[in-house]
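Lab notebook: predicted structure, single chain.

Context: the supervisor wants predicted structures on file for every construct in the current expression panel, including those that have not yet been purified. This is the next one on the list. No modifications to the sequence; it matches the entry in the shared construct table.
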Amino acid sequence: MGVSEGDVAAFVAARGRLFGIAYRILGSAGEAEDVVQDTWLRWQRADRGAVEDPTAFLATTATRLAINVAQSARVRRERYVGPWLPEPVETAADPALGAERAEAVDLALLVLLERLSPTERAAYVLREAFDYPYRQIAEVLGVGEANARQLVSRSRKHVREGRRARVEPGEHRRLVEAFVSAATTGDLAELERLLAVDVVAWADGGGAVHAAKRPVLGRDRVARFVAWVAAKRWLDAERRFVEANGRTALLVLRDGEPKFLVSLETTVDGIAQVLLVLNPDKLHHVTHVASQERALSGPRWDRTTGVRREEGFQR
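Prediction complete. Output recorded below exactly as produced.
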């Protein structure tokens, strides 16, 4: 059965949500794109005339596919060289993430979600990022409503235990700028003042670039580590502030190409985590612009498949 214009339109309308769900479950934009592509193929093969709610059908399909990918990805990430961090995405003007609650895309939160089971992660994302009712979460996950409530409750408890009170966006930006300034000048005393007592720094190189293979713990050691990274990796490089995963972050570039991203978890106790994403394979979805003016090119759709082929910022 051929795909009608209405079928394509239904998929296009849901695509942002599908990507948003898959990305939050997987922490990988590349894997999320694959899930969206597979969802489109399932939609083509489905008996679409019998589908009462295309958006619900597509979201259910994408969620279940993402859970399957997450289950297999866990094995791969156990073999990953050094710490594994989620793949950051530039969110300043990107509607593809399509969340009603932006906090559920925060990089530090995605790190926490990675410690949950894939099903718990999906339950949390559907409830906290997209405000799904428990009945619908149960239908998506193929469990009873009481079980769905338990999954959300367990995941919320884990997140609460692993998260501190966050600062507002304006204060977050101020702390990021102060952190970058102190690191650039090698001011260890100022760096220590900005850091929480039990701060942790993670460096994700994936074996592709040299990076610390274990977390760096404590205010003094993290301050010295950050100052060393700044001196070695960014003093002679181009530096830009970008909005990555809904929060201000530092992007370091050479010859116009992103080399690594520094994301901070900023709390009322100071900077609690320093996340350095150095693996070049994880920087494809972080884009910089030369000025405050941003223009998002529209998604280009393959006329046959209806799947987006290219999307990005234009200077």
